[in-house]
Amino acid sequence: MRYRLHRNSQKRIYVDQGIYFITTNTYQSFPYFSEDIFCELFEAELELCKKLKGFEVYGYKINPQHVHLLIQTGEKFDFSNVMGALKRNFSRDCNTLMNDGRFIRHSPKCGETPPKGDDSNRRLLDDDAFKIHVEKLNELHQQFINKYGQCHKFPPFKWQKSFHFHVVNNQRDFTNHLRYIDNQWIKHDLKENKFCYIGAALF
C-alpha cells in the first residue's frame, strides 16, 4: 500500500489496482440529481472517464444529493486522479448544459496556455467515443431546454470539496457494499431504484 497525506489532512490509502467504495456529495447537499437529465449526464461522464482513466465500475447509485461508486483502479491512475477528472468534467459540462454553452472547447494556438476549465479531452476530439459522448451531451442539453427553456431553478453546479472513500478488503466487504448500493433507494425512501448499476453478482 502507498500512503499520502492529502492537503485536506485526510489520509488516503492507495492500493495498486485496488477496489474502492467512494461517496461524493453535491455542494450544500443541493438535490441536483432529483432531475433525471443530470443523472444521465453523470452516467455519460462516468463512461467517458472509464475510457480516459482505465478503471472498472462494479456498481454505482445516483441519489438526489450524493453518488456512491464501487470502482477498481487500473495500472496508471489512482482513485484521486479518477475522481478529480470525473468531478471536474461533470461540473464543467453540467454548467455548460444549463447555460447554453459549447461542449467542445477549441485547442489553444501553439505557445498559448489553455484557459482555466478548458476541455481536458481535446486529444480525443477525433475519437469516435468522444464524438458519441458529445452527441449525448447535446441530446441532454436539448432535453433540458425543452423542459425548462432559458429559466430554471438550479444554481451553478458544484461538488462538495473532496470525497469519502473506503478500501474494499475482501469478497465479503465487496458484496456488502454492492448490497448497500442496491438498497439505497430503500434507505433514502425513493420511489424507485433508478440510476443504479450493479455490475457483479450479489451472492
Brief description of this entry?
The chain has 203 residues and is of the alpha+beta class.
What class, by secondary structure content?
alpha+beta
How is the biggest beta sheet arranged? 5 strands, antiparallel
Order of helices and strands: EEEHEEHHEHHE
Number of strands: 7
Please give the CATH class. Answer: Alpha Beta
Strand content: 15-25%
* Overall mean confidence score, pLDDT: 86
Distance between the termini: 28 Å
- What's the helical proportion of residues? 25-40%
Side by side, the strands of the main sheet go: 6-3-5-4-7
Please mark out the parts with pLDDT under 50 across 5 or more consecutive residues, or reply none: 1-9, 114-119
CATH topology tier name: Alpha-Beta Plaits
Q: What is the CATH architecture descriptor?
A: 2-Layer Sandwich
DSSP helical segment count: 5
Q: Give the domain tally.
A: 1
